[in-house]
Structures are given as structure tokens and as C-alpha cells.
Amino acid sequence: MKMASNETNLKAYSKSIRDTLDKQLPTPEAVKLAALIDNTALTVDLLLAELLGDPELSERYDYDGQFFTPKDRWGFHRVFDGEHIVRSTEACLNCFLEQPAETRAAFLEEFLATHVFEVQARLTNWKEYRTLHLIPLSVIEEIVKAEKASEPAPLSESEREFFKVYESQLKVRES
After folding, report:
1. Is 161 exposed, middle or buried, given 0-12, 13-18 or 19+ CB atoms closer than 10 A?
2. Rounded Cα–Cα distance for residues 171 and 28 (Å)
3. pLDDT tens for residues 128-151?
4. What's the pTM value of the predicted model, to 2 decimals?
5. 27 to each of 17, 23, 32, 157, how far by Cα in Å?
6. Is the torsion defined by CA of 44, 42, 114, 83 positive or negative?
7. Residue 175 and residue 129: Cα distance in Å, rounded?
8. Residue 52: half-sphere exposure toward Cβ, Cα within 13 Å
9. Helix count (H) and strand count (E) of the chain?
10. By CB neighbour count within 10 A (0-12 exposed, 13-18 middle, 19+ buried), where does 140 fall?
């Protein structure tokens, strides 16, 4: 099972990103965005190392740096390691650079935050529920059970008026 990003590859992709940013942005912004990308990759790799450190996980899943695939059934769970995050960021760097200057950093932060969220959620759910799903099945079942047990809220006057049109159309079709 892959334990961490390939450090050599990670450095090469990071350098390529930094070079591109240096050519197209003022130095302070280029440094800030490059650090954001590198810090995200490092954070994800540290969380991922903790997740991959559980021997039960390697018994149940294969991991290729991008996806956990169950050994006994179909499906996958996306969790990019740091190298793949940097590679995917490099691949869509022009998209980030086309953003207006005042929103560029926020756009990139949002993109990178999804990767951190995914690995954090999967790590938490693995520890608590022994699953890599973002929402564990037991949580979904509790929500459905609670929803079935509760009475639906009565329709407002405007909602009743809205549905009268459809009720009349249904009556016409049924007759």
C-alpha cells in the first residue's frame, strides 16, 4: 500500500507550479499561492499517513495515491495524496490564473480545501465507523429513521394553492 507522496515527484511539480506563478503573478502573491499548495499537500499527506497506518485498512482496501478501492466489492473513495493534489493543481493552473486577481486566492483555497476535507472526513469516519464513506451508512439510517418517525409539517396556504392546480389536473386524468 502506498504510504506517502513520492517526494522527488512532489518537489518537481511544486517547482513547476512556482515557476509558472512567478512568471504570471507579483512575487508576494506567487509565494503565497505556492505555499498554500505545498502546505495543503503536506497536510493531506500527514492525515493520509495516519489513515494508512491502520493495518485493517490495507486488509480491506487498495490505495493508488488517488483512490481507495475495496478488495471485496465495487466502488471507490477519492483521496488524493499530496503528489496528486499538486499534479491536479498544476494541470488546471491556467484556470486559477484566469480568475480575477481579487478572487484568485479564494478560488484556489476552495479547490484545495476539498482535498483536506475529504481526507479528514474519511479519517474520522474510519476511526469512528470503520468506513471510508463521507457519510457513514449508520448515520444515513438514523436520519431516515428520524424522518419517518416525524410528522410532516403542514402545508402553508401558498403551498396548498400551488398544489390545487396539479390536483385538478390529476382528477381530470383519472376521470
Report:
1. exposed
2. 68
3. 999 999 999 999 999 999 988 888
4. 0.76
5. 13, 9, 9, 59
6. negative
7. 53
8. 21
9. 8, 3
10. exposed
